[in-house]
Design brief:
Elements: E1 6-7, E2 13-15, E3 18-19, H1 20-27, E4 31-35, H2 36-52, E5 57-62, H3 69-77, E6 81-84, H4 87-95, E7 103-105, H5 112-120, E8 125-128, H6 131-144, E9 148-155, E10 177-178, H7 183-192, E11 197-203, H8 214-234, E12 240-242, H9 260-277, E13 284-287, H10 291-294, E14 298-310, E15 314-319, H11 328-332, E16 338-340, E17 350-355, E18 364-371, E19 379-383, E20 403-408, E21 411-416, H12 421-424
Parallel strand pairs: 4-20, 5-6, 5-13, 6-7, 7-8, 8-9, 9-10, 9-11, 11-12, 12-13, 15-17
Antiparallel strand pairs: 1-2, 2-3, 4-14, 14-15, 14-19, 16-19, 17-18, 20-21
The protein binds ligand LLP.
Length: about 425
């Protein structure tokens, strides 16, 4: 059983000590249920892994994976930094009361408004992505008479074996300064011409849903070489080495990610070896995981509805959500595991394909899922839906977005209420 789920004597799935049918009854479906203990455990595993290798570290939760006021508060409670990538995420963090000095901002095209908000709220770090941003940020800081710590985002040319759309570290990328054409050195010079920018270090994010340490090792080695060059030729010391996010999780039995502790250990040891080889001491290591913090903690509950049997071909079982709350199969061919949450004590006696309710053939959640025999009204639980699901949810077909609850010690807390039809009209300017 994934997501820390338990089976009750009634044959029902429970999450965080609360039965899924009670959750569905109280909050309706589709419903995204987070097991808060799983999130906190992931965070403490990261911290312990860093402590075990005695590295100075900083963990930032990449809130693009799932961003809400409550999640920002949880991250703050755990002593994390927060990685935001837009004015909207920044605004959410500010509204949650997050200590803005522990915010770091990413983005390959940060707008003037976004940068102004970052400056006025005195965030901790901006990861500079391009030359335009250096100029713009320099000007805005001058106008505000403020200073800003920055990292340079380097595109280190590491091609990790992951889906093309979510692989950002390879050389042909819209993100960051190219390592091989002298762009990074030019960026250092440009930043040094801006008296209000303080260059604190380097950043590289090599991709997402990565299963081993190899790509991180290569990136760390390349950034160590670069750090050496920056000290020697520019007198610039790399105080912070941010290796991005990307640790993969186990969506299905086919996925075999390296355990988090092993990955952190291998990454830190590789980075330390690379820096020491270059005669430098290891900078503070920063990671900004998103998926590995929240994905496994999330389970989506759907109500089973119609069924279509095509003799000799396939059986479709449709649920009351789909690509509007989880577009990851449609976008990336992502795979998930599921159960009929109120019949866990029954054998998985059939193989069906789980369809969503949107007017689009590609609106599928799982192809060929071995499941307990589903009847209309049953509850389907899809596991590992905590990252990039609600975050990428849409109102396609004017389907309303689900509610989100967090469960902990047998109690549930509504974190995001279900969208209503009235909510769908809230932007209409001509009512
Ligand atoms: N840092 C940077 C600069 C990133 O671009 C990302 C993810 C992260 C950190 C967090 O990566 P994580 O630990 O979550 O892998 N929508 C896709 C994932 C896109 C990831 C984008 N960047 C999906 O559903 O798989």
């Amino acid at each position: 059983m994934q997501s820390g789920g338990q089976v009750l004597s009634t044959g029902e799935l429970a999450i965080g000590g609360v039965s899924t049918s009670a959750l569905a009854q109280a909050y309706g479906t589709p419903l995204i249920v987070y097991d808060e203990a799983v999130i906190r455990k992931q965070i403490s595993d990261y911290k312990e892994a860093f402590q075990a290798v005695r590295a100075e570290f900083r963990l930032a939760y990449a809130c693009k994976a799932f961003c809400s006021v409550y999640m920002c508060k949880l991250a703050q409670d755990e002593g994390l930094w927060l990685d935001v990538v837009s004015g909207g995420e920044l605004y959410t963090a500010i509204q949650s009361g997050f200590d803005t000095r522990h915010l770091l901002m990413h983005g390959n095209n940060k707008s003037m408004e976004e940068l102004k908000l970052a400056i006025s709220s005195q965030i901790g770090l901006i990861v500079i992505d391009n030359f335009y941003e250096i100029e713009l940020l320099g000007q805005l800081l001058e106008e505000a008479q403020a200073n800003m710590d920055v990292l340079i985002r380097v595109s280190p040319g590491v091609d990790v074996h992951t889906h093309d759309f979510i692989s950002t570290g390879q050389q042909d990328s819209k993100f960051g300064f190219d390592l091989y054409s002298g762009q990074v050195e030019e960026a250092v010079t440009a930043i040094r011409c801006q008296p209000r920018l303080r260059l604190m270090g380097l950043h590289a994010h090599i991709g997402s849903q990565i299963f081993d340490a190899e790509g991180f090792r290569v990136a760390a080695e390349r950034l160590a070489d670069l750090s050496k060059k920056l000290v020697r030729e520019y007198g610039v010391v790399t105080h912070i080495l941010n290796l991005g996010g990307g640790l993969g999780i186990r969506y299905t039995a086919e996925d075999t990610p390296m355990p988090l502790e092993t990955l952190v250990e291998e990454v830190v040891l590789a980075a330390r070896a690379a820096y020491e080889h270059d005669g430098l001491s290891l900078p503070l290591i920063m990671l900004e995981p998103g998926r590995s913090i929240v994905a496994e903690a999330g389970t989506t509950l759907y109500r089973v509805g119609s069924r279509k049997e095509i003799p000799g071909l396939r059986t479709y079982v449709a649920v009351d959500g789909g690509m509007t709350d989880n577009p990851r199969l449609a976008l990336y061919g992502a795979k998930y595991e599921a159960v009929i949450a109120n019949r866990l004590d029954e054998p998985r006696s059939e193989v069906v394909s789980v369809a969503g309710k949107a007017c689009e053939s590609g609106d599928m959640l799982i192809w060929d899922a071995p499941l307990q025999k589903a009847q209309p009204g049953d509850l389907l639980a899809v596991f590992c839906t905590g990252a990039y699901n609600y975050a990428m949810a849409s109102n396609y077909n004017r389907i309303t977005r689900p509610a989100v609850v967090f469960v902990r010690d047998g109690a549930a807390r509504l974190v995001l209420r279900r969208e209503s039809y009235e909510d769908l009209l809230r932007l209409e300017a001509t009512l």
